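Q: Got a minute? One more chain.
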Amino acid sequence: MFEFEVTATSGAARTGVVTTPRGTITTPCFMPVGTRAAVQTLTSDDLDMLGAEIILGNTYHLMLRPGADLVEEMGGLHEFMHWSGHVLTDSGGYQIFSLAPKIDDEGALFKSTYDGSTHKLTPEGAVDVQTRLGADIQMVLDVCPPLPSPDSVILSAMDQTHRWAERARTAFVDRPERADGMRAQFGIVQGGLDPSLRERSATHLMEIGFEGYGIGGLSVGEKRTEMLTPLRATTDVLPADQPRYLMGVGDPLSIVEGIANGVDMFDCVLPTRLARHGTVLTTSGRMNMTNARFARDPLPVDPGLATSPIAKWSRAYLRHLLQVKEQSAARMLTLHNIAFLFDLVDQARRAVTDGSIDQLVSRVGEVWG
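A: Always. Here it is, folded:
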């Protein structure tokens, strides 16, 4: 059982609920990235405390370390992590293609960043790995070119993605594990910045048929404003009764703009990566907590976010922890940054319900534009 119900709309924006045998996911939602079966510096208990309903795991890293067989032996990612929420796994394609692999119709040949060993990932192999990991939602293997790229590269990547998607869907449907309804598979729309290619890709994937659809190949080098036209061309074509996932996007303005253009799900390493470097997301914009101006600042990290899990500690204290390289600093700032994005999508859900999503986009744009 995998269902999506739209609960409110405002223009292209919508709120909804994804229902699976594991539970529900309220959308729009932001998915923290648990690259190696952990959101960096946090535990599964932390994620529960923050109210996370779904996190993302990285197929590329997990297939190499500790390996899909070991994770399967340990009961899948949920048992391995002691995590009762949902897990979406990417196909590994984005990481693999950043390594300049050798690509043919069969799949992608690449070298491990851990030990230099050679591996080949095929569409069928990506399904097998993600099934062994026990993902609730898995992504097809796609080709994700950087932007800008020549038109010929964009077209070739899209066509290869379509061919692989057909094979991935066949492999997924044929898996006996799918009989219990605990699995869902999303296709991935490609096509660069060309709206007509985006429409063509979305239409092709819909003809194959998936439980939901990822929108890939955006936020990969282009300007943020360049993303909106191909994004809207995609969401206008994708089915209204299935979830849409804008992959790898997590800055506040892009999230609310994505929601205004019909996106339901987001993921990004931004909140965790910034936290490890001492930067927090706040209602006033980014703040680097290592700045000397916070040395004697008694204010909480973000007075505008009363629900921050680190609101009781001062900016002066947080800066001190960063200055002395106390490991708890990264954890505390990560908790705050994820709470900030969760609050942002909460605001967006309310704005869709009361018809004020455009005003929210304007307010966020004044800070983050």
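A: Residues 328-354 form the longest helix (27 residues).
Q: Perfect, thanks.
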